[in-house]
UniProtKB/TrEMBL annotation:
Keywords: Hydrolase. It holds the Pfam family Hydrolase_2. The keyword Lipoprotein does not apply. InterPro entries: Cell_wall_hydrolase_SleB (IPR011105), SleB_dom1 (IPR042047). Residues 104-213 form the Cell wall hydrolase SleB domain. GO terms for molecular function: hydrolase activity. This is Cell wall hydrolase.
């Protein structure tokens, strides 16, 4: 179809006239080939224009309550169509955490990590802001809560498209997306490890590359 669209669009009026002649009989008459090609070019151009308008509308629409409720049904490509997410320091801390901890995950995997961070904010056992939760223990040997804050690697955002995607998830989560995936989890680890602290917690879910836990109490 793309090749046909390119070829048809390249035909100008004079070329269409040159190609004119008898087409297939319709109700006993003949339709000029030039007229038929004109109609096909117009139809393709209208389809392209309508598709462009739909994408533009999706990119500019506000995130509604329905959007927030249905984020788990969004594909990564649909998340990408949402407006660029913005916010203050707490939003930025959550977006950064999702970038380094979950940017390779599905939307559900990103949401699950965000749930843990936000659950910690509401727990009496952890600091009461996103930034304090994410940076808890940073700089202290074996005490950082999120490995990217003390692994010695650069925290520079190198993949802007991935960051914009996780930032949209962070924005939606901070704006009230129900936390339904992890059963109130306040901890997680990757499938590559099995920390000793898991013995004192209840496992609640496995989503993507992470296993989630909450306090037994």
């Amino acid at each position: 179809m793309a090749q046909e669209r390119t070829a048809l669009t390249a035909l100008n009026a004079d070329r269409l006239i040159d190609l004119g002649g008898s087409g297939s009989p319709v109700n006993g008459t003949s339709r000029p080939r030039g007229n038929r090609l004109h109609a096909e070019v117009s139809a393709l151009n209208r389809a392209d224009a309508e598709a462009s308008m739909l994408v533009s509308s999706a990119q500019q629409r506000a995130i509604s309550a329905e959007d927030r409720q249905s984020i788990l049904s969004f594909s990564p490509e649909e998340i990408d169509l949402l407006p660029v997410a913005r916010g203050g320091d707490e939003f930025k801390c959550l977006a950064e955490a999702l970038y380094f901890e979950a940017r390779g995950e599905s939307i559900a995997g990103m949401v699950a990590v965000a749930e843990v961070i936000l659950n910690r904010v509401e727990s009496d056992d952890f600091p009461d802001t996103v930034c304090k939760v994410v940076n808890q223990g940073t700089g202290k040997l074996h005490q950082c809560q999120f490995s990217y804050t003390c692994d010695g690697r650069s925290d520079r955002i190198r993949n802007q498209a991935a960051y914009e995607r996780v930032a949209k998830v962070a924005r939606i989560m901070m704006d009230g997306q129900p936390r339904m995936l992890t059963g109130g989890a306040t901890h997680y680890h990757t499938l590559r490890v099995r920390p000793r602290w898991t013995k004192n917690l209840s496992r609640t879910a496995r989503i993507g590359a992470h296993v989630f836990y909450r306090n037994n109490a």
